[in-house]
Amino acid sequence: MKTEDKIKPTGELLTRTVPMPADTNANGDIFGGWIMSQMDIASGIMAKSVAKSRVATVAVNGMAFHHPVQVGDTVACFGELKKIGTTSMNIQIEVWSQRSIQDVYFCVTEALFTYVAIDDDGKPIPVKR
Ligand SMILES: CC(C)(COP(=O)(O)OP(=O)(O)OC[C@H]1O[C@@H](n2cnc3c(N)ncnc32)[C@H](O)[C@@H]1OP(=O)(O)O)[C@@H](O)C(=O)NCCC(=O)NCCS
After folding, report:
1. 56 CB under 6 A from ligand 1?
2. pLDDT at 30 over 90
3. Smallest Cα–Cα separation from 89: which of 63, 52, 120, 36?
């Protein structure tokens, strides 16, 4: 099933927030960069809790935007740990939006974030298992 056709999210709820008018683009929808920053925050929360160390985003893959987000939607990021490598972690993030007036949920976007566990000098270190 395509993610945009899913009826419920996969993974753990990591963040919930409501975008404001200052977060809109020229079309009046929520700016894609704002959504991506929410995904980075959410995946960073999961990566830190897995690695129990500092982490850095090294790559974002497979990002696809399925629906626009509007001011006042409740935007939730869900994460699933897909893989732990030596120093890296792959975390799939789905963003779901709830349009309060209509009480409908839909998947807005998704992407695979890769994080690296790092030490105090910013050098990769093995992920503690
Ligand atoms: C993250 C960082 C410390 C990694 O250092 P590095 O010397 O490139 O590390 P390595 O080449 O040893 O790779 C580390 C791990 O990341 C993985 N990796 C590196 N580049 C990757 C990429 N483009 N895509 C997916 N995985 C990648 C490697 O496969 C490796 O995984 P493993 O240890 O599980 O096998 C360094 O690239 C960095 O500081 N980048 C900037 C991070 C940053 O500022 N992020 C915020 C941007 S807004």
Report:
1. yes
2. yes
3. 52
